[in-house]
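Posting for a labmate who doesn't have an account.
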Amino acid sequence: MSKRVTARINLAALVNNCQQIQTIAPHSNILAMVKADAYGHGESEVANVLESYVAGFGVATLEEAEALRDAGINSSIVLLEGFNFPHELAIADELGLDLVIHHWDQLELLLSSSFNGVPKVWLKLDSGMHRLGFPIESWPAALERLKETRFSASAICMSHLACADEPDHALNEQQVSAFQSVVEELPNAKSIANSAAILSRPDLHFQWIRPGIMLYGVSPFGVQRVLSEYEPVMTLLASVIAIRKVEVGDAIGYGASYVCSQAKRIATVSIGYGDGYPRAAVSGTPCFINGQRCEIVGRVSMDMITVDVSEVADVQLGDQVELWGQNIRVEEVAEFCGTIAYELLTGLTGRVNYQYLRPPQ
């Protein structure tokens, strides 16, 4: 396999990040989010190394859950969007999944089924995000309906904050108040904290926390609050494949969108939007070559980018280029691209070679 682009995944950093999360929420169970191929890091590899550190894993699809079981994961797996049809429920039963229930049709289908196992049921309240969940006026009735069944003992009360990455947003308090109004007196376990809430609202840790992006050493708050105590797990690398001198007035790349105002030395690097590097990256987006920050110039093409290496005296063909990772935070790259780190991490394509650095035994 060609290694023109490599995502180097530091599994020791992943474990350290997980342990740091447990330190700040010592009384909470960790449901580790590994949906979307573990945020682009490799679902099976991530789950295998984390299994002994967490209480379970969160996935979005049955296919993701099946991949975990095929990889030998025996821990609890929570199907975050639940199921919609009887055949999906049968697959969930076969895989031994725990289930998020967020509307009446799901609940009645579960209760009328011949589900062999007794999964944990995560009953979801729509506390104000208006995406998934029982409305606040019908949520208590859903819980009462569940209590009549064999699934009641393990029911977990959950919701999700729309603006947790903006700690001062007024909707946070409105949602917390709504959640507390229906669950506060219940003996059931509770869960509302994603990465941003884990960091900013220790009062919301409850019995279960649901870390996602922070597990991978990336801040849910973007460049405004980089998590210096968490180590980036992914370093995205490509190679210098050409070096040339350009003169004043020379244009670089598609559309001639970048015109040199002075003579420069330009390195062409083996990564583009065909690999998942964002086409939205503008001139000035940083990368890292031979110990120095450099800047992309011109448009990102399908297979290549061009970088100003005028100040890197020793750059040579084959030199590695860090697009994000230890030296260039993916949060910063996302800022230049007008997006979020989540999109960059999950957007890598099948052309990228993955290299896993395993923690010491």
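Reply:
Got it, the structure tokens are right above this. The first strand starts at residue 5 and ends at 10.
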